């Protein structure tokens, strides 16, 4: 179980509180959709849940344990803009090595072509690059996957391929998901449960 307990956060000391006493939990079989208008702190919340930023108060537990201070994080996040999530100086084969033992099956399942691995990020399309970011986030140790508008900038065919793959892969491996999107049809299609931020789950 992924538990988000009483999270409070503001970017500036004594500034506007972006998140106030946020509580939610997600099981390994669930795909939880989060809805909220722009600026309500959805991206900020996902960054806290995946350990990129620390909350001012509250805690994140995975199976009753806090996120590890070092080593592989069982909660992985995929961002809206893949080009901002990869080192531009690394070839894609090296980017994949940043993950936790990325399998051949995963790479094939995502439709990543052998030749793409020799390229640099700027030599790939947004959809091709996002497939690498998804592969990197789905290493052996991943228990929960957080998706922040991950297909917003992609065409419908690519969106469909990516979501079908993600649903199958996470079901098979018992990986729980948290999905942020402004698209209600997408959330209706993908999620097993939905909540609105700032309302009780
Ligand atoms: N690094 C930062 N420093 C200061 N303020 C920030 C920072 N990042 C985001 N904010 C502010 O925090 C608030 C929440 O931003 P966040 O990106 O989490 O919202 P969001 O709900 O994901 O929005 P959107 O739906 O537009 O992506 C916004 O008012 C934003 O301007």
UniProtKB/TrEMBL annotation:
Keyword ATP-binding tagged: yes
Keywords associated with the record: ATP-binding, Nucleotide-binding, Transport
Alphabetical list of InterPro entries matching this protein: AAA+_ATPase, ABC_transp_ATP-bind, ABC_transporter-like_ATP-bd, ABC_transporter-like_CS, P-loop_NTPase
Source species: Maccoyibacter intestinihominis
Coiled coil: none
Ranges where the ABC transporter domain occurs: 2-201
Superkingdom of origin organism: Bacteria
Pfam families xrefs: ABC_tran
Protein's name in the database: ATP-binding cassette domain-containing protein
């Amino acid at each position: 179980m992924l538990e988000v307990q009483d999270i409070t956060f503001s970017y500036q000391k004594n500034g506007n509180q972006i998140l106030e006493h946020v509580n939610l939990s997600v099981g390994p079989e669930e795909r939880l959709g989060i809805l909220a208008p722009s600026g309500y702190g959805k991206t900020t919340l996902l960054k806290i849940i995946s350990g990129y930023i620390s909350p001012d108060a509250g805690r994140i537990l995975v199976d009753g344990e806090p996120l590890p201070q070092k080593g592989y994080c069982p909660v992985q996040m995929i961002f809206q803009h893949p080009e901002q999530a990869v080192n531009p100086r690394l070839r894609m084969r090296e980017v994949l090595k940043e993950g936790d033992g990325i399998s051949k099956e995963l790479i094939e399942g995502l439709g990543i072509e052998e030749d793409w691995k020799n390229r640099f990020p700027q030599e790939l399309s947004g959809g091709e690059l996002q497939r690498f970011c998804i592969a990197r986030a789905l290493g052996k140790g991943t228990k929960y996957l957080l998706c922040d508008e991950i297909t917003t900038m992609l065409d419908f065919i690519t969106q469909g391929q990516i979501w079908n793959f993600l649903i199958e892969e996470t079901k098979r491996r018992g990986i729980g998901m948290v999905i942020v999107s402004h698209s209600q049809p997408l959330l209706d299609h993908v999620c097993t449960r939905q909540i609105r931020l700032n309302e009780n789950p």
